[in-house]
Design brief:
Strand content: 15-25%
Strand order of the largest sheet: 1-7-6-4-5
CATH topology of the largest domain: Peroxisomal Thiolase, Chain A, domain 1
Order of helices and strands: EEHHEHEHEHEEEEHEHEHHHEE
Low-confidence stretches: none
Number of helices: 10
CATH superfamily of the largest domain: Thiolase/Chalcone synthase
Distance between the termini: 34 Å
Radius of gyration: 19 Å
Shape: globular
Largest sheet: 5 strands, mixed
Mean pLDDT: 97
Bound molecules: oxa(dethia)-CoA
Helix content: 25-40%
CATH class of the largest domain: Alpha Beta
Amino acid sequence: MNKKITAAITCVGGFVPEDKLTNFDLEKMVDTTDEWIRTRTGVEERRILKGAGKATSDLVVPAVQDICKKRGIDPNEIECLIVATVTPDMTFPATANIACDKLGAKNSFGFDVSAACSGFLYALTVGATLIESGRYKKVVVCGADKMSAIVDYTDRSTCIIFGDGAGAVLLEPNEEGYGLQDSLLKSDGSGCQYLHMKAGGSLKPASIETVTNKEHYIYQEGQAVFKFAVRGMADVSAELLERNKLTGADISWLVPHQANKRIIDATADRMGLSHDKVMLNIQRYGNTTAGTIPLCLWDWEKKLRKGELIVLAAFGGGFTWGASLVKWAYDTK
Ligand code: UT7
């Protein structure tokens, strides 16, 4: 009898640009303080992709190259690249297509997933089904955002949070039960009103007026999003544990979307998880939207042990939210 195929994460890659934007830099740009930003969000600095002609695909490519190098594979072995992003290089074609070309991944098809901060979890779940189907052996899932392209650096309520970066995972078939165990994904379009970009889509194409009115930047009602995020991320994580008959004690790590440290703390508390089991890098990279979860895995890869159960959880624009349960597949030497 054929054994059940699961989608194991077999390698993690990442990339953050060199240029840092610190809270002290922001103090000179808007009416804010390092103290306010640190205590209200947990962010200390973020990375910014600078340079003309640089786009989200330039974050994706080095993250995927990192995987190829570490796993010892050629880009031509990748069969599918899924890029989760809300800051695609262009409205079309997909950033995944552009990245495949830059990578020289000639045998890969690719597409983008638009689910804001939950994009990586959505893409991971879709990528895993390709592996579980038995038809694909190497699928790369990348979360990448060049948030600096859509941040208004005169708006102190948003510019303090976001940064640029990309993280990626390689999914391969496993017959011993490692990898993605379960995903609980949700969305509610009525949340659009609280977090969106007003213009540039088919609803309101770009015009001189939309540019003048600064409608190509992130619009966020922070307090409202915060309330939904605390409840959404905590509830979905608790529900995922419950339906898998697990408690916080069974979980080695929570890998949360890095939007605000206070949201992360609330989720850990709800899961009954001590805070030393929570991956946190918001202080160094800020909120890189689809990039946060794989960037945490990238930073923590060496600490993860084969067989450990980890929960990935996110909440973001859409609204979209969700949690995934992963059985870690390898030890890093
Ligand atoms: O990742 C996608 C999903 N996004 C999120 O999950 C973000 C969720 N929201 C948040 O993280 C928080 O709402 C923010 C960090 C965006 C804002 O923090 P807050 O504690 O909700 O602040 P607030 O909007 O309630 O503002 C409190 C006060 C206001 O002043 P008054 O009206 O009380 O005098 C703001 O004007 O803080 C003021 N304020 C600031 N002060 C200094 C807002 N931004 C700043 C700032 N520096 N950067």
